[in-house]
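Repro:
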Amino acid sequence: MRLVDKIDDKIYSYATLRQIEIIDCLRDYDGNLTKTGKKLGIKRQSITSILESLIRKAARQGYSPEHDMKHAVPDGFLLKGTSTLYDSDGNTKIQWVKSSIDQVRQKELITIALDEMCKDIPALPKLPSPKKTDSLTMAVYPFGDPHIGLHAWHEDTGNDYDLKIAEEVNLKAMQLAVSKAPASEDALIVNVGDFFHSDNEENRTQSGHALDVDSRYSKIIRIGVRIMQSLINTALTKHKRVRVINSKGNHDQKSSQWLAVALDARYHDEPRVQIDMNPSEYQYIQFGKVLVGVCHGDKIKPADLESVMASDEPLLWGVTTHRYWYTGHVHHDQIKEYRGCKFESFRTLAAKDAWHAGKGYRSGRDLKVIILHKEYGEVERYTIGIDQFAFESEA
């Protein structure tokens, strides 16, 4: 059977626009690969490879007629396997189709859905840009593991914490931090990961551990986006440009990615705001002779980050002299200096949940403001401890 004859209407429905163009042209030339290739300007071997790829794609979804597989799995899933029972004449009697979640495709579907949802969001009103700023410095606001959605009861953990407190604490800390920071032209808001406490409605970590969660997941994500928007708007009152990096944490591998998509849709008409959309575990930003790397820190030892930075960004490594890694995950302050860069992890503003309290974790709660100079690297910093401001929920 010719390759083009294997592509029925069902397989055709899986084709991309380019594949559809090739199939239609091939059918016009009665399956002649040479004439089709000449018409489209591609090699006949490439046509074969493209069509075989399409057939394999349909098979991964559970549709391959030549193998008696005619029951496609839903979009967002992959075929895991089939078991077929044949009668004495070789006809299919019963077929079992097993599927598994297609993580890559589900991420694509979530992104598409978010893009559609955000199309009708009205543009934010233009915030007045500060008139006098320092172009030689950048203010960095690293938020250590905010864990939005975490629930804590003071009798169990020593402090109360819920969505209302989380929103109040993060916004007041940011307002105080911005008031203390110099009027740098550039600002960098760094979410080092675990912005959300849970990543799904099951209220469990990826490894299956139960979490203490306040309210429904849909409410958590709504308030989480509102909190990050408030942080950005507060920074815009003092800085001309605000850049936002959302790192993937072990608590919010998926949520951190759609958080970036939601924020990008919200600020797409605001030239003063840049939302980094890079889904990599390791992200970088250059500021003059300064190179900053950001990651959550759960997948790598601090001592290995130096070589990762040099390997990922050899050109930026070569033109910079002050290099920093900003991470989270451990919920306490750590600073270590290696041969080529300095590593730092940050405290969180969130209270301890029952698990951390029971394990004896007792780190403080604060927000740092780090001022980086284009020539000299870090030149000053401020610490906003939670005791420096009162919030109504515990006043």
